[in-house]
Amino acid sequence: MRKKIRFTTGDRIFLIIDYIILTIAMLTCLLPMLHVIALSFSDSVSASTNSVLFLPKGFNTLAYKTMFSNPIFFNSFLVSIVRTVVGTAANMILTVMAAYPLSKEDSELRGRKWISLFFIIPMLIGGGLIPNYLLVKDLGLMDTLWALILPGCLPIGNMVMMMNFFRGISKSLFESAEIDGANDFVILFCIALPLSLASIATLTLFQVVGHWNEWFGATIYINNRNLWPLQTLLHVMLTSIDYNSFSAENLSQLRLLSDRSFRGAMIVFATVPILCIYPFMQKYFVSGITIGSVKE
Known about the structure:
The chain is mainly alpha-helical. It folds into two domains: 106 residues, no CATH class; 151 residues, MetI-like fold, CATH 1.10.3720.10. Helices cover 70% and strands 0% of the residues. It is globular.
């Protein structure tokens, strides 16, 4: 029989304050999104007069119809998907391949400390925007998706976390595999990676969100609008809507819309994919981020 927990007056006060703080934090995150969704489904008059709060007024879907009828949004959406998938795959492959050997002891990998220092220094000291731009230009990566993927293909912070995850695995498992004749590649793919699925899923989620939300790189390295990711297009549209990218039919629909409703629809369109992915990976998040933090 489970023993009933008795709360003192101090415990109850702490819980009340805790719930109040968490509720405020939840509303701070939720209410702005509800406002944007309501704005995207509201009519022009209600949106222009700032009378929309958390429920649509003059419900209509004209903003979404106008957006979906313009091929530039679907093109940017596909570019973002390709950039996210390829970029995340490159990040995770290089992260794992760098973290596993660095998780070894000094006796197993000569010069491990110096190699680790080689990775850590760029994380602390960056070259700056202009040297990065000149490097990308000299490598011939301008106006390609590789300009958004290769410069940050090895996230050092994630590599350090992954290295600690591998260090948290019992060394006896590796030693037993070595006695049975397994080499490092067999140990990595058959032992280390299966035991690190939670941490890999967590870091993958970090990279997916990072690639999907990043917009600044394309404004510097890509001049061709057809290669802009969705977030870059969204940033430009939120600053000033380029009416030259719309057809005559789209322009006639935009006259019936408020700019705020149309921009709200773009924000919702750019946010929904990440919101759909996160619930499936949430179960790995807490366990993955704490693996390797406690040592025996």
